[in-house]
Amino acid sequence: MTGRLRRRAVLAAAAGVAWPPAQAGRQAEEPLADSVRTALSAAIGSAAPPRPQFDQIEARLAYLRWLGAMSERLKRRKSEHSTRVEFLETLWYESKRAGLEPELVLGLIQVESGFRKYAISSVGARGYMQVMPFWARLIGDGDPARLFHMQTNLRFGCVILRHYLGIERGDLFLALGRYNGSRGKPEYPSAVFAARRQWSAA
pTM for the full model? Predict the structure, then answer.
């Protein structure tokens, strides 16, 4: 994406205007220490249902309010109610599981894929969170086709972003740049932050 198109995407995201899916950057395939590979493999490997359990009724009610509000906002991108709710339930679960803000992940998906499950970028990144196929080989079962599975894609994307946050010592700006393969450049993090504000707005 050119600088001019990036600026238009940022403005469109800030205004809440639909924008064609961005081309994902090229996440760098870096050597992973055995301990890191093992930890990441475990993080994406453990099976668990996306529907959360709550000990307190207040927490459950807050979650249901979030689910209702986000479902209404997502309606024009995903018209079928059951598909939309399943997506949001899974996104909330995988975001929280990775210690990420769900609205941040929604913003990232808006910029990366425009909420298209089967999006493929010009460099081969796949699915909602535009995960590069080499991650399936490094920390998964090696089958890049599985990156089109909703929960698999969301889990990989969230775990990878959390991994980059650790590398960047909590600096979200740099972690997002690393996720997109454009570390240090402002266009991509700015677009994600603008989209996150849209999903976070009351």
Answer: 0.82
